[in-house]
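hi!! sorry for the late reply, been swamped w classes. u asked for the two structures so here they r. pasted raw, havent cleaned anything up. first the sequence of the first protein and right below it the C-alpha cells
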Amino acid sequence: MTSTITTTTTTATAHTEAALLDLGTRAFQGLGLPPDDAADVARILVLADLFGLHTHGLSRAESYGERLNSGGINATPDIVVTDIAPALRVVDGDNGVGPVVGMHALRAAMEVAGTCGIGMVFARGSNHFGPVSPYSLLAAEQGYASIIGSNATTTIAPWGGGDARLGNSPLGFGVPNPGGRPFLLDMAMSVVARAKIRAALKRGEAIPDTWATDSRGVPTTDPRAALDGFLMPIGGHKGYGLALMVDLFAGLLSNAAYLTHVKSWVDAPDEPQNLGHFFILIDTRRLGSTAWLARRMNDFAAILHGSPAVDAERPVIVPGEIELDRLERHRAHGITLDADTMALLQRYAA
C-alpha cells in the first residue's frame, strides 16, 4: 500500500538540497543506521545527484538497502581509525556502508594533512562508496588537493584475457581554487559504468560497440549481452594498467580484498565485499597563500578556456565544470528525482 501511495509523487516536483538531505538521512536511519552515519551517506549521495550523477545518487538506496536488509552490510559498524605513522592512517570499516567508511577516511585524511601538510589514509572493510567527486569537493572546500580511489567488483577482463579479473575502479583528483571553482576529475577505468548499460537495457536502446564485449570478449551493441560480458577499459592496455594500480593501492596495500577476491554485491549480496579505498590529501595552504593559489588556478583555467573551439557549440572546459554547473543550478532551482527512487526513500523513511 505504501508503495502505491508514494509513487504518486510526480517527477515534475523539484526538491531542495535540504529536503533531500533530510529525506535521505531519515531513509537510511529507517534502514538501521545511526543518525550521524545516515547523514554521511545522504551527504555523499545527494551531492552525486546534484552533480547529475544519478546512477550513484540516492537511487543507490535500492542496492544499499537490499544488502543492509540481507545482512550483507553492517548497519552499525565499529569503525576503527589507527595511526600507522605521522602522516598515515588506516580505517577498518567493519563492513559498513561505503559512504560512512569513506567519510571517516576523508575526515582522517584532512586531520592528518592539516597537521603534517600531507596525509594518506587506507580504508578496508568497506562497500561501494559512491562517486569520488563529492569527497574531492568536500576536501577542496577545506583547502585540500586530493587523489582518491577505490577498487570494485570485477567487471573488466585483463588486457588480452577472456574473463573478468579486475574491477572498474574509480579514481579522482581535486585541486581547490579559493573563491572560485575547484578542478574535479572523477573517472572509472572503463569507457562507461555498468549502470549506463543497465539504463540502456531498461530503455530498450543499443549501446556503442566501444563500451563492452559479450561473454566471448567480442564487442557488442546489445546491452543484455554486455551485462553478461565485460566492460572495456579506457585507453586499451593503458587503462588496464591504470586499473591495476588503483586496485594495488585501494585493495592490496589497504589489506582489503582485491581483484577476484572482491565479492560481487549482485551475486553474493549477503556477503561482505571488503572493498578498499585510499585518500591522499595535500594541504595547499602550506604551499602558498590562498591569493597565490587562486591567481594560478584562474590563469590555468583561462589558458584552457582561451583555446578556440573546433565546435562553437562545445567550448573547451576544465574537469568538473559540467558537474559544478549542475550543482549550482540544482541548488538554485531544486532537483527532480524519479518517482521510484522517491517512493523507496519515503518507504524507508517511514
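now the second protein. again sequence first, C-alpha cells right under
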Amino acid sequence: MYLCLKLIFLLFMDYIVGCLDSENFVEFKLVKRTQLSHNVASFKFALPTPNSVLGLPIGQHMSCRGKDAAGDEVVKAYTPTTLDSDIGYFELVIKMYPQGRMSHHFRELKEGDYLAVKGPKGRFKYEPGQVRAFGMLAGGTGITPMFQVARAILENPKDKTKISLIYANVTYDDILLKDQLDGLARTYPDQFSVYYVLNQPPESWDGGVGFVSQEMIQAHCPAPAPDVKVLRCGPPPMNKAMAAHLQALGYTPAMQFQF
C-alpha cells in the first residue's frame, strides 16, 4: 500500500505547487529539534498545512537566513534530508561548528522559532533514468544532497539507477545519517551501496582509512562511461582532491558534478 501511494504521489508531483519562493524569504516554524550528537541536530519545520509540500527539486538546495553571534545577518545554503513526498514538513540535519556564523543561529534556534528560507537554488536537477549509475563522493555535511538524491531514486519503484556512495569523515562520531544510510543499503542491496572512510578510525574499524584515494574510487564507484555520473560534495580541499582523482581515472567533466 505504501509503495502504491508513493507512486501515485510521484506521478502527480508536477501538478503540486510548493511553498518555496525563489525571490523572497519565507518563514517556517520549528516544531521539533532532536539532538543527534554533541554538535549535530535534526530540525523539523512545519509547512503551512499538513498537505503542503516544500517544492524543492531533487538535487537542489535553499538559502537559510539567520544571525551570527554579533547579531549580523548571515545566509547559507542547505539541502533538506526530506523529499516532497514527505508532506507537511521538511527537515534539516545541521552540524554546528564552534566558529560557524550560521551554526550560531541554529544553536540558538528553539522549538516555536521561525527560520527564513528562500529557494530553490542550484544547477543540478535530477530526473529519473538520467544515468545508469551514480558514483557519490561525500565528506562531512556534504552527505545531505547525496542522501536526498539517493532517497528519491530508491523510493521510486520505476527508477532503477544504481548508486555507489563513498562517505568520508574524520571520526566515527562524525558520520551523519549513518542509520538511515545503512537502512537504505539493507533495503536496496542491489541498487545502493555505501563505503565509509575515516581519517581517525576506531580500533575495530573495517572500512576505509585515511583520505579517499583513486584506488577506493576504482573499487567502489562505477567505471567511467557516458551513462555514469559522479557527484561530489565536501570541504573545498576534498572537492579539489576528488576532481584530480576523477580526472586521472578518466572521468570527463560531463561525467562529474560538484554540489
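hope this helps!! also noticed smth abt the second:
The domain at 19-121 is CATH 2.40.30.10 (Elongation Factor Tu (Ef-tu); domain 3).
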